[in-house]
């Protein structure tokens, strides 16, 4: 079966209209950030590429982390959630790397003007992990001044920190590198192991596989303590924490769960509802 298929007509039309209406990427976007509220570093845009304006919608809502799924097709890294979504014009470069490079140049070295903290770019590998990562590494090298870099045991901060998730086979070639422009997305099983934060700066896991509470009723004390212990263990090793598969339907249950995540010190709140999480975090500063 061919990996590149025709995208749904409505999605393609929506993206085309959004691209036509969107302001130019680069200095125009950067200029508009001068008087905006500070970034929301704990906001993570799950499946960011499904928004009308990938990356730019998340930045407009001041998100500190965005997620893109990639498929290796030939030597191209195509963006999409499934094979049926793939379009040869929607590449990692066109939707993320090139716009980020222009924005960082216009902002004199940062994604958000006046803030040196890196934006997190979570890259979720959907094809075989080892070969896809090695191709991704070749792509990232073309933007060597953009990314946080690991160099012989040292981490040199950049405007963007790429973290590799998805197919777990990516870990093997990453661990073998003495110089790399990406880091590995660990799981709860990696907590307390010998893997350092210089390889695994992020611990992510499925909420529903580790907790029963979905925001309704009282958060069980044992689960609250478990959550806080996990976060403390990660933070003690310089790692950040994110959960996916949390409730994302607007309402009291989602707000209650997000409030518990904030109280426990979870570093990234996962959502497809950009405006909803922005409003929540602004209300809970």
From TrEMBL:
- Name the domain of life: Bacteria
Alphabetical GO biological process terms:
lipid metabolic process
PROSITE patterns given in the database record: TAT
InterPro entries tied to this protein: AIM6_PI-PLC-like_dom, HAT_RTT109-like, PLC-like_Pdiesterase_TIM-brl, TAT_signal
- Name the UniProt key words of this record, in alphabetical order: Signal
Entry's Gene Ontology molecular function annotations: phosphoric diester hydrolase activity
Pfam families from the UniProt entry: GDPD_2 (PF13653)
Signal sequence, renumbered to the chain: 1-30
Q: What protein am I looking at?
A: Altered inheritance of mitochondria protein 6
Q: Which organism is it from?
A: Streptomyces canus
